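sry for the spam today, last one i promise. struct tokens for design, 301 residues
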């Protein structure tokens, strides 16, 4: 993975039975057995886990019919090809210039992301991200409602609006407000955020923008980089999905470090959203989300 030398090692689940059989389909659709609590959508991840950990965690995955055995996970040659994936509808939340939002929008237009941005939500009606959305005929919603602007939506109104738009996933791209619990309950495991540091370090309330990079440099940390995580009801505490490492140089200023991290943010967020829209995110039994390789469904990045 570009720029991710320390975090790009791939691990595969190996099994001599499968290794001997070269007729596995390119895509496999995983279905949880009745005894499993996992939510199984195919996936593609940026975190590294040894094969023994993955084997132990997937012991109850199975397809509709039994044919191939991979470790203790059961796959079927028949009826296991991945069905046609519908194009996803995305809502992006912004508070500033929206450079990540623009990167995602360009990827949608170019076809690398199998989805479309159907709405932008902002707490700053005149921010750069909102202006870009309006110039590209993307509906803009103001949230939350404030005393100074009665045109803003309440939490319930926002949920209703996103439901009416049939939104599949919510993507935070520099949105500085806490996401309301009503939205999290409506879109469980469907809200992503990108943070400009390697969580769980340098996260939480007050750690945004240049504050993050100043704190990283002041700490003496040798590495930083973006983290993409699922959103819960607190700042930056949701499950980590992907990270990319960048070095912190000896004479870095916060602005220089911010620019280096931002370059990695743009590529990483697009890669993750591509996997999300292709339904390549799965959840391990211990609650850790993984991203499945498009080329080899037995590998996780």
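last one done:
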């Amino acid at each position: 993975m570009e720029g991710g030398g320390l975090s790009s090692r791939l691990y595969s689940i190996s099994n001599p039975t499968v290794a001997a059989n070269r007729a596995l389909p390119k895509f496999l659709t995983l279905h949880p057995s009745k005894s499993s609590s996992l939510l199984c959508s195919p996936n593609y991840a940026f975190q590294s886990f040894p094969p023994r950990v993955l084997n132990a965690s997937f012991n109850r995955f199975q397809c509709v019919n039994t044919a191939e055995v991979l470790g203790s996970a059961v796959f079927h040659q028949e009826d296991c090809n991945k069905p046609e994936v519908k194009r996803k509808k995305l809502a992006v939340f912004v508070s500033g210039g929206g450079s990540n939002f623009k990167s995602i929008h360009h990827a949608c237009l170019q076809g690398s992301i199998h989805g479309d941005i159907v709405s932008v939500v902002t707490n700053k009606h005149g921010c750069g991200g909102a202006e870009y959305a309006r110039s590209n005929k993307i509906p803009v919603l103001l949230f939350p409602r404030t005393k100074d602007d009665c045109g803003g939506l309440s939490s319930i109104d926002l949920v209703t609006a996103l439901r009416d738009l049939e939104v599949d996933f919510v993507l935070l791209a520099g949105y500085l407000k806490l996401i309301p619990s009503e939205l999290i309950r409506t879109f469980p495991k469907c809200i992503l955020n990108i943070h400009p540091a390697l969580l769980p370090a340098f996260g939480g309330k007050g750690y945004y923008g240049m504050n993050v990079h100043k704190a990283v440099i002041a700490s003496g940390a040798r590495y930083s980089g973006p983290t993409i995580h699922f959103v819960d009801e607190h700042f930056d505490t949701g499950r980590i999905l992907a990270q990319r490492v960048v070095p912190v140089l000896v004479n870095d200023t916060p602005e220089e470090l911010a620019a280096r991290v931002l370059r990695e943010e743009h590529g990483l967020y697009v890669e993750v959203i591509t996997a999300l829209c292709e339904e390549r995110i799965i959840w391990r039994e211990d609650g850790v989300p993984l991203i499945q390789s498009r080329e080899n469904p037995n590998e996780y990045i």
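The helical segments are 16-19, 51-57, 99-110, 128-135, 155-164, 181-186, 210-219, 254-277. ok im logging off now
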